[in-house]
């Protein structure tokens, strides 16, 4: 079943820069895929269109049956609840505990305190940090901080997780740990789309790869073809 579809999507910024042009692809429920390309190829813009941080200039982005460009007001917020986002730089609140950082999306939704506590514990257990709830971000390693970022993205039980260069600041060992966590998510019902420019990583992961070049989708590589 198709979860996400780009139909001849273009994005031109006010400066005149064409970030994306005629991009079309589909992502299935329970699929994990990568988006790659040179710096400025359009990877981050593509993720922003899915999260509705940006809207397309042309074409349509569909999530399930919804045309995202037509969503307004509260419907935008409801859509974002179905999307988890992992950033390269963690974006954790330094003066809040790990549990409080993970709980933030649920607090903003107004969920009951008991429900929040249960979901936070479960999310931290998923990323192997169930015993660090009261720790502050500064007390964690870079890899553990990225795990907290993943837990925060998962706590809302999203249908799709977006990750923008999630291993860019990590050494190879920590990067492998983070990717193993992300690779396990489709089996739990969460689709995953990762932006990365690390070609060695893409070959090692053996997942589908969408290749952007100056805003155009120039290749859609199946896992079995990555060796070439």
UniProtKB/TrEMBL annotation:
UniProt KW Cell membrane keyword:
yes
Query: Signal peptide span per the entry?
Result: none
Listed InterPro entries: AAA+_ATPase, ABC_transporter-like_ATP-bd, ABC_transporter-like_CS, ABC_transpr_LolD-like, Cell_div_FtsE, P-loop_NTPase
- The segment(s) forming the ABC transporter domain are 4-228
UniProt record, GO biological process: cell division
What is an example of a GO molecular function annotated in this UniProt entry?
transmembrane transporter activity
Which residues fall in a coiled-coil region?
none
One of the record's GO cellular component terms = plasma membrane
The places in or outside the cell where this protein is found are:
Cell inner membrane; Cell membrane
Topology class, membrane:
Peripheral membrane protein
Swiss-Prot/TrEMBL keywords: ATP-binding, Cell cycle, Cell division, Cell membrane, Membrane, Nucleotide-binding
Looking up Gene3D superfamilies in the UniProt record yields: P-loop containing nucleotide triphosphate hydrolases
Q: How does it assemble?
A: Homodimer. Forms a membrane-associated complex with FtsX.
**Which family would the database say this protein is a member of?**
Belongs to the ABC transporter superfamily.
Q: What does this protein do?
A: Part of the ABC transporter FtsEX involved in cellular division. Important for assembly or stability of the septal ring.
- Recorded protein name is Cell division ATP-binding protein FtsE
Gene giving rise to this polypeptide = ftsE
């Amino acid at each position: 079943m198709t979860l996400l579809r780009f139909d001849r999507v273009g994005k031109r910024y006010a400066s005149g820069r064409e970030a994306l042009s005629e991009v079309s692809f589909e992502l299935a429920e329970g699929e994990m895929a990568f988006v790659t390309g040179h710096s400025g190829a359009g990877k981050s813009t593509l993720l922003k269109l899915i999260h509705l941080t940006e809207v397309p200039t042309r074409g349509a982005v569909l999530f399930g049956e919804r045309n995202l460009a037509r969503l307004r007001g509260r419907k935008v917020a409801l859509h974002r609840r179905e999307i988890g986002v992992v950033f390269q730089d963690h974006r954790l609140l330094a003066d809040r505990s790990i549990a409080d950082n993970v709980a933030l999306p649920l607090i903003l939704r107004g969920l009951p305190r008991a429900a929040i506590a249960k979901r936070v514990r479960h999310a931290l257990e998923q990323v192997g940090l169930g015993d660090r709830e009261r720790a502050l971000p500064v007390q964690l390693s870079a890899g553990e901080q990225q795990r907290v970022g993943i837990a925060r993205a998962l706590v809302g039980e999203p249908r799709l997780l977006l990750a923008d260069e999630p291993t860019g600041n990590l050494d190879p060992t920590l990067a492998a740990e983070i990717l193993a966590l992300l690779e396990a998510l489709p089996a739990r019902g969460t689709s995953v789309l990762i932006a990365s420019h690390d070609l060695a990583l893409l070959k090692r992961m053996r997942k589908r790869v969408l290749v952007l070049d100056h805003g155009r989708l120039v290749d859609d590589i199946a896992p079995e073809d990555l060796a070439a």
